[in-house]
From TrEMBL:
<dbReference type="InterPro" id="IPR022254">
    <property type="entry name" value="DUF3775"/>
</dbReference>
<protein>
    <recommendedName>
        <fullName>DUF3775 domain-containing protein</fullName>
    </recommendedName>
</protein>
<dbReference type="Pfam" id="PF12616">
    <property type="entry name" value="DUF3775"/>
</dbReference>
Length: 141
């Protein structure tokens, strides 16, 4: 029975990979928070003629923020079914939907709900980085 419990805690997705997601999610969250804090909406309106020769420094910043979200989205989309389910289950454990002792249940529920919108679902979580961190800590990974 002890062997079975140990097996439950093994992750297909490496803890270092989850930590990479956490860093990306924190960077994304920081960019969003800065926008809200300074009241900036970062929208640039261009008329039809001006876009060919118009340069705006804000676009570089905007691209890097979008790149972070796009990178995170691509990383999540590149996960296999088991890894994606584990990432969702970690977020749920970190959020408190499941206790660490209910890891197998969280993982089963995440696998049952698996679909092609996992990245959208996870990126829609306002505290994704915190929840992933807390999930990793809770299961001792």
């Amino acid at each position: 029975m002890q062997r079975r419990l140990e097996k439950e805690w093994e992750l297909s997705i490496g803890p270092d990979t989850v930590r990479l997601f956490i860093l990306k999610a924190k960077a994304l969250s920081a960019a969003v928070n800065e926008d809200y804090a300074d009241g900036a909406e970062h929208e640039v309106e261009l008329d039809g003629e001006a876009h060919d020769n118009h340069h705006h420094d804000g676009l570089v910043e905007e691209s890097s923020e979008d790149l972070t979200e796009e990178e995170l989205r691509e990383l999540i989309n590149d996960l296999n079914v088991d890894e994606a389910a584990e990432l969702v289950a970690l977020a749920w454990v970190g959020r408190g939907d499941y206790d660490a002792s209910e890891w197998a249940d969280a993982l089963t529920a995440a696998r049952e709900r698996a679909n092609k919108r996992t990245a959208k679902y996870l990126l829609g979580m306002p505290l994704l980085a915190d929840w992933l961190e807390e999930g990793l800590e809770a299961i001792g990974a």
